[in-house]
From TrEMBL:
Protein name per its UniProtKB record: NAD(P)H-dependent oxidoreductase
Native source organism of the sequence: Streptantibioticus ferralitis
Residue ranges of domain NADPH-dependent FMN reductase-like in the record: 11-158
Domain of life of the source: Bacteria
InterPro entries tied to this protein: Flavoprotein-like_sf, FMN_Rdtase-like_dom, NAD(P)H-dep_reductase
PANTHER family named in the record: CHROMATE REDUCTASE (PTHR30543), NAD(P)H-DEPENDENT FMN REDUCTASE LOT6 (PTHR30543:SF21)
Length: 219
C-alpha cells in the first residue's frame, strides 16, 4: 500500500566527492548517473563545486547560519529519495572536503540524511580502489540515520579503467556495477512505496527518534 504522495520515478542525487577537473570519481559518478537514468529514475547529477563551503566553524554558524553550499546540498538531498557518492580515499579515510560537507549539513534541523538511502562507490589508482575510505564514510552517514546499502563498488586502477565513452574497460566490472546500482534502486523503490525500512533508533543526538516500529523487508 503506498504510504505517501510520491508514486513517480525514483529521485536520486549523484555526485563525485572531488574537485579536480579530471577526477576519476566524477567520471564514476557520471557512469552511475547514466545507469540510474537507464532504469527510468530521475537523476540529479551534482559536483562538489555546487556545494562550495568554508571549513566548519561554530562561531561562523552562530553568526551567519549555514553557508549557501551546505544549504544547497541539504536541499538536493531533501528532494531525493536516495543519494550516491563516488568518493576518493585520502589516507585510508574520507576526504576532508566531504566530511566537512556532511558536518555542515548535519547542523540543519531536521537533518536530511536520516530519511535517505545511500550507495557508496569509489575510484582510485590503487589496487583496492579506495574501498577503505568507503568503510570510513559509512560511519558518519549511518550515525546520521542514512540507510547505507550493504554492497559497495570500488574501482581499482581507475586511471586506466574508463573507455572513451565513459564506460568501464572491464565488461565484468561494468556488469557488476550495473547490477549493484539496479539492486540498490530496487530496495529504494520498495522502501519509497511500502516504507519497509523505517528506523526506530539511531545514535545522532540532534534528532528526536521516537519513530514508529521499524519494519524490515523480509522474504
Ligand atoms: C590520495 N590517494 C589515495 N588513494 C588511495 O587509494 N588510498 C589513499 O589512502 C590515498 N590517499 C591520498 C591522500 C591524498 C591527500 C591525496 C591527494 C590522494 C590517491 C587518490 O586516490 C587519487 O588522487 C585519486 O585520483 C583521487 O580521486 P580523483 O581525484 O581521481 O577523483
Amino acid at each position: 500500500m503506498p504510504t505517501d504522495s510520491h508514486p513517480g520515478p525514483l529521485r536520486v542525487l549523484v555526485f563525485g566527492a572531488a574537485l579536480r577537473a579530471d577526477s576519476t570519481n566524477a567520471r564514476l559518478a557520471s557512469l552511475v548517473a547514466r545507469l540510474i537514468a537507464d532504469t527510468g529514475a530521475t537523476v540529479d547529477h551534482a559536483t562538489m563545486h555546487d556545494f562550495d563551503m568554508p571549513l566548519y566553524d561554530g562561531d561562523v554558524e552562530a553568526a551567519q547560519g549555514l553557508p549557501g553550499g551546505a544549504l544547497a546540498l541539504r536541499d538536493r538531498i531533501e528532494r531525493s529519495d536516495a543519494f550516491v557518492i563516488s568518493s576518493p580515499e585520502y589516507n585510508g579515510s574520507v576526504p576532508g572536503l566531504l566530511k566537512n560537507a556532511i558536518d555542515w549539513v548535519s547542523r540543519v534541523r531536521p537533518q536530511p540524511f536520516r530519511t535517505k538511502h545511500a550507495l557508496l562507490v569509489s575510484a582510485s589508482p590503487s589496487l583496492f580502489g579506495g574501498n577503505r575510505g568507503l568503510w570510513a564514510l559509512r560511519v558518519p552517514l549511518e550515525h546520521l540515520g542514512t540507510r547505507v546499502y550493504p554492497d559497495m563498488f570500488s574501482l581499482a586502477r581507475a586511471y586506466q579503467a574508463f573507455t572513451g565513452d565513459g564506460r568501464l574497460v572491464d565488461s565484468d566490472l561494468q556488469q557488476r556495477l550495473t547490477e549493484t546500482v539496479r539492486a540498490f534502486l530496487t530496495l529504494v523503490g520498495a522502501d519509497v512505496r511500502y516504507v519497509c525500512l523505517e528506523r526506530r533508533w539511531y545514535e545522532f543526538l540532534g534528532d528526536r527518534t521516537e519513530a514508529p516500529v521499524t519494519q524490515r523487508a523480509e522474504g
